[in-house]
Amino acid sequence: MKTDKDSPLLLYRSLADSLNSLIEKETYRVGERIPSVRQMSKQQGVSISTVLQAYLLLENQGWIESRPQSGYYVRAMVRDHAPEPEISSPTKDPSQVSLHELAMMLMRDSTDPELVQLGAALPNPDYLPTEKINHALTKAARRHAVDGHKYIIPPGLEELRIQIAKRAVLSGSQISPSDVLITSGGLEAIDLCLHAVCHPGDIVAIESPMYFGTLQTLEVHGLRALEIPTHPRNGLNVEALSFAIQHNPVRAVIVISNFNNPLGSQMPDEKKRELVELLARHEIPLIENDVYGELYFGEKRPLVCKSFDKKGLVMLVSAFSKDISPGLRIGWVAAGRYKTELEWLKFTISASPPTLPQYAIADFIESGGYDHHLRRIRREYARNVELMSSAVIRYFPPGVRLTRPSGGFVLWVQLPENVDSLELYKKALASKITLAPGHVFSATNQYANFIRLNAAEFTYTTERSLERLGNIIKDMLGVAGLDAVV
Ligand SMILES: Cc1ncc(COP(=O)(O)O)c(C=O)c1O
């Protein structure tokens, strides 16, 4: 009789698991070649395709790498040996946000071609499907010569909404095309959500640290941020949020449940469920930002909180800015019970997102190009995050802590207490390097000795810049400072 163990699905996983444990026990050491696919297939009595699947899984998880014409090798997982930052412990009171000057300064840096860009969370331009999307745009312009210049009033292009609804199944949510509203990027979607459910002075609970674009949206709306402790790997602490809700009139909650910017954290499914249930009991809307959700390093698309939503309280936001094009400005929101209000708001504020990009993206997804493209860039980003983590450990002074992102492409680095990241930012600029100082990730300046690095790109220049950055930090610490951290 066939058992579960014989199922090909479990076979490749159990092969991957046993190889993984051999790597952990250093039976296979870093840099060493593991048996070829053919050898492994013979050794284990399993098919070539099972071995290939197991190796692909290990490769995606960063344990091994394939070298052309040579085979598979064990990779250095340096980041797993570096300490992580501790769970954050922000102040317990809500606070007004005032970050626009700092944020504008970072924005200006992000377009300066003279600087090595480690600051803004921009995707690697080489990992964008620019040629294919340009081709899809040309095709759309030809096909929709006249319609391509008309408004597409909310909720947006149906063909695109169908593709989005189909993909949403992979993240566990059952949404229909009519639930989806196309927006001009993810930021606009978040803005519309806040507009729909909050009034100036209201309290919005957020993960701490939090992406500064969201903090600025709170600032624009005159909302107060209530920062909630967040674990560097498992994301928002739901118990702490529950406590905060008991003591504050929280009007809405914002999370980046998959690959928080700047932490790279991913909330476990059970925590996502707990969060949705908690907010359902209190009738509090959740704005879930999933712009990085497709850029996972593991085997499977992680679920979204929206998949546990029974009351229509979760507004799921995403965009194609991180994986197709930041400049096309196409995002979307599935706003549950707030859908009609958001459609009206979108229409009132900007009528329609650009038309031709909607056609082009719908076509790119439908043709299978998007999936193919994502499979490639997930591996590239996982590798670059790993390489940048190793470089940080190599060049920064002892005592730094860094996150272990399971998706996305940013790294959050905790420097010794006495290094002010704004001072470091200024010194780095003098060396033509830009980074994101921790100051901008909190309304209450919790992260003065943290920096966020963009690991989307890792080249020789990136590595030399990290070495330079490490030296600047060591200079800032001086000998006495170094003693204090070791
Ligand atoms: C978490 C998060 N949300 C939203 C955005 C911006 O999305 P968009 O460019 O689609 O407005 C970013 C960009 O850095 C981000 O990191």
Largest sheet: 9 strands, mixed
- Give the count of helical stretches: 15
**Fraction in beta strands:** 5-15%
In CATH, the architecture of the largest domain is 3-Layer(aba) Sandwich
Class by helix and strand content?
A: alpha/beta
- How many DSSP-defined strands? 16
Identify the CATH class of the largest domain. Alpha Beta
Q: Please, what is the CATH homologous superfamily of the largest domain?
A: Type I PLP-dependent aspartate aminotransferase-like (Major domain)
Q: CATH topology of the largest domain, which one? A: Aspartate Aminotransferase, domain 2
Overall pLDDT level: 93
| Helix percentage range | 40-55%
Account of the 3D structure:
This protein is of the alpha/beta class and 486 residues long. It has three domains: 4-75, Orthogonal Bundle (Arc Repressor Mutant, subunit A); 81-125 and 375-485, Aspartate Aminotransferase, domain 1; 130-370, Aspartate Aminotransferase, domain 2. The protein is 42% helix and 14% strand. Strands 3, 5, 6, 7, 8, 9, 10, 11 and 12 form a nine-stranded mixed beta sheet that branches. Helix 2 (37-44) crosses helix 3 (48-60), helix 5 (130-143) crosses helix 12 and helix 7 (185-197) packs across helix 8. The longest helix has 27 residues, at 369-395. The protein binds pyridoxal-5'-phosphate. Pyridoxal-5'-phosphate (PLP) is lined by residues 121, 185-187, 211, 213, 256, 261, 289, 291, 319, 321, 326, 331.
